[in-house]
Specification:
alpha/beta
Length: 362
């Protein structure tokens, strides 16, 4: 049990509580370990893999993974960490995205040990009276304790009534699947604790909270996010995935080694070679070793040796004569967000060429 506890808690940012998890493990039965994902876009990204790999750790220890596809909660949108209200998605868009999530999740999870459920199968059946009764278990004071809601009130940003429902619905998911453990990023603490409260009120044992670190996006500033455009999708092509990872800073590279490869940045390796190794290992994990080798060779040819005539260069549609606009759109094609000021600076430094001649006038 001690060995299993050490394995399952390795890399966790916070656990509530380790003693409760040890007690559940002593019962010597498969635990039901819940993870919920909202299909707000068509792609899972590397930030999701941290928590999916933790769920796989539980699978390998003999426990039952319960993957909740939030086809209902995605219609509302999780307000966690948001300074503004999320745009509302159409049901057709959510359903289309949900179909891709299963395929991508099984790049990491053992399908034979995964129970997949859609929370629309119970949340969509609640009557308005059911919703009122569910809300009666939660106080407005509880909900407004959330840091993101408090920040919005201070900055006079609106909090819409439907957003307040989100943590209640996520908490109700825990009751419906009888979760022993719920996994989440550190921004999910409030939602998962509310799940413990609802379980207790429904006469169920309370779930253990196990939080994993949040991965910073390619910009190194904000968390990796589909809506912020600073992400590496699991469905990115090998060349695109490799190129995006080569764009991160040396400071961020150490963090990626730790969270994505579960090992330290090699200290005796040149930073460029260490970054190539990181990108190669990640592409090999989510594609294949051959695809990773080809992507590395292609990147080296294009960017290190600059034998551009031998590479598959991206094609951009017709553009205006504004070189800054062309540069911003070219970076965006690789999922890299650059401001006009940043692109203008790069142009002045000679980073853009036309037929071998440097263009220095933005």
């Amino acid at each position: 049990m001690r060995d299993q506890l050490a394995q399952l808690t390795r890399g966790a940012a916070q656990i509530i509580s380790q003693a409760e998890l040890a007690e559940k493990l002593r019962a010597n039965r498969p635990l039901r370990v819940k993870l919920g994902v909202d299909p707000t876009s068509a792609d899972l990204h590397l930030g999701h893999t941290i928590i999916l790999r933790k769920l796989r750790d539980f699978q390998e220890a003999g426990h039952q993974a319960v993957l909740i596809i939030g086809d209902f909660t995605a219609l509302i949108g999780d307000p966690s960490g948001r300074s503004v209200t999320r745009p509302t998605l159409a049901r057709e868009e959510v359903e289309k995205n949900a179909k891709t999530y299963r395929e991508q999740a099984f790049k990491i999870l053992d399908q034979s040990k995964t129970e997949i459920v859609y929370n629309g199968s119970w949340l969509g059946k609640l009557s308005f009276e059911d919703v009122i009764r569910l809300n009666s278990h939660v106080t407005l004071q509880q909900l407004l304790q959330r840091e993101d809601f408090r920040d919005r009130m201070k900055s006079e940003q609106p909090i819409h009534a439907h957003e307040i429902q989100y943590p209640i619905m996520q908490a109700y998911d825990s009751v419906m699947v009888k979760a022993d453990v719920e996994l989440g990023g550190t921004d999910q603490l409030f939602n998962i604790l509310l799940g413990r409260d609802l379980q207790k009120q429904n006469g169920q044992p309370q779930q253990v909270v196990l939080l994993t670190p949040i991965l910073e996006g390619l910009d190194g500033k904000q968390k990796m996010s589909k809506s912020l455009g600073n992400y590496v999708a699991l469905n990115d092509s090998p060349a695109e995935m490799f190129g995006k990872l080569m764009s991160i800073s040396d400071e961020l590279m150490a963090r990626y080694y730790l969270l994505l490869l579960s090992r330290e940045l090699p200290k005796d390796e040149h930073p460029l070679e260490a970054k190539k190794l990181l990108a190669t290992e990640i592409v090999a994990t989510y594609h294949s070793r051959d695809a990773a080798s080809k992507a590395k060779e292609e990147w080296t040819t294009r960017f290190s040796e600059k034998r551009l005539s031998e590479t598959e260069l991206p094609i951009l549609p017709a553009q205006s004569g504004d070189l800054v606009t062309i540069g911003v759109k070219a970076f965006a094609k690789f999922g890299i967000t650059k401001s006009r000021a940043e692109v203008s600076r790069l142009i002045k430094q000679g980073s853009v060429q036309l037929d071998g001649a440097k263009l220095r006038d933005p």
